[in-house]
Amino acid sequence: xxxxxxxxxxxxxxxxxxxxxxxxxxxxxxxxxxxxxxxxxxxxxxxxxxxxxxxxxxxxxxxxxxxxxxxxxxxxxxxxxxxxxxxxxxxxxxxxxxxxxxxxxxxxxxxxxxxxxxxxxxxxxxxxxxxxxxxxxxxxxxxxxxxxxxxxxxxxxxxxxxxxxxxxxxxxxxxxxxxxxxxxxxxxxxxxxxxxxxxxxxxxxxxxxxxxxxxxxxxxxxxxxxxxxxxxxxxxxxxxxxxxxxxxxxxxxxxxxxxxxxxxxxxxxxxxxxxxxxxxxxxxxxxxxxxxxxxxxxxxxxxxxxxxxxxxxxxxxxxxxxxxxxxxxxxxxxxxxxxxxxxxxxxxxxxxxxxxxxxxxxxxxxxxxxxxxxxxxxxxxxxxxxxxxxxxxxxxxxxxxxxxxxxxxxxxxxxxx
Length: 417
Ligand SMILES: Cc1cc2nc3c(=O)[nH]c(=O)nc-3n(C[C@H](O)[C@H](O)[C@H](O)COP(=O)(O)OP(=O)(O)OC[C@H]3O[C@@H](n4cnc5c(N)ncnc54)[C@H](O)[C@@H]3O)c2cc1C
Fold this sequence. Notes:
By secondary structure, the protein is of the alpha+beta class. It has helices spanning 15-26, 51-59, 63-67, 109-120, 173-177, 239-245, 247-257, 309-330, 335-368, 377-385, 391-399, and strands at 3-11, 31-34, 48-49, 72-74, 77-79, 89-92, 104-106, 126-129, 132-140, 143-151, 156-166, 182-185, 189-197, 210-214, 217-223, 227-235, 275-277, 281-284, 288-289, 292-294. The strands form five sheets. Strands 1, 2, 8, 9, 10, 11, 19 and 20 form an eight-stranded mixed β-sheet that branches. The protein has a five-stranded antiparallel β-sheet with strand order 14-15-16-13-17, with helices on one face. Bound molecules: flavin-adenine dinucleotide.
């Protein structure tokens, strides 16, 4: 079997893996990304690119190119009030943030990943193998020395590395083979994603995030460039029951929650159009071993609340490149540096997961068990009567805790990258 050598192997070409590959290549590190699929075309992944990530792309000189990708802007988080009860409640008001970092861009994840790939390929030390799966982590004693790969055509090989980074998502093989175990938190719900058409007359629909709360159900609609992306939330484990009920029953359920969708629910042609996200919330106690590190979803699966998944994965990648590029280029990399990555990124992960568990408790659990659907009345009253308060949740979502900035070696003027 042929053995090759790279400074760094990255398992997984998702947001974390491609951003890390791009940044390390800009530092001159020989880096190779392995992605098991042939392309990035998977629907209903995280598509939410937050203001902190847009700022980072500007610092990397990629902002202009990013803004040319097909995208819609996600505006305020608006909770409708009962008919005749007055104007809807705006709980998070993005209009109060300073442009241009005042919104969430909704970009199809495959377009975003294609874009990152094209930019990374400009760097001579960046290498990408598609349809190449990491099958085994190689070790000498306790030290990871590389990994074995298998291509879809059956070819196999080994690559030796100084560092293997597991960016292979929530079911990470790198994590499992390294014997790293996550702490799992209970999540009471799953999410089912589907698309509905957006009528021509709705061209100017405000790009707000509008949730509908009913005892046992939550329906969230995101306005995309030419369709509506809808998320249905109900009890965890309900997938078999929903599918057994059939598409007619599911359409009726959606039309009941949003009567204005009754004219288009026929676009859900079968339950195959309804995609389950088995929601998980977990994080590793320890993110590294000698010669090996996990980041992104491999280190922490996030709940969909706040759409933070992609952004946290990218911020992890930036911190990793910032802390490790120097030791990798001067040959001094040790577990001390890997520990520094965990120390830097574990704190924002904990903050966000604590926020998600709180939201889960005060909104999701009480909506799904029917005890009190929707956000607490106090939050709605505060947002209604003290408009300045609406800025805080928008700021928390747009920037997140500890946003990372591009390291000097990776910065480029905008439009040049
Ligand atoms: C169905 C679904 C819906 C989601 N919806 C949302 C959402 O609405 N909002 C949100 O913020 N987040 C959402 N997420 C989460 C979000 O997509 C992730 O948080 C984010 O993509 C994490 O990036 P990552 O690079 O760490 O991992 P991933 O994006 O999971 O990328 C991992 C990559 O590794 C590849 N891979 C896996 N194993 C191997 C292997 N052995 N060898 C080589 N390659 C491998 C995979 O093919 C994949 O491309 C969703 C996730 C899923 C699965």
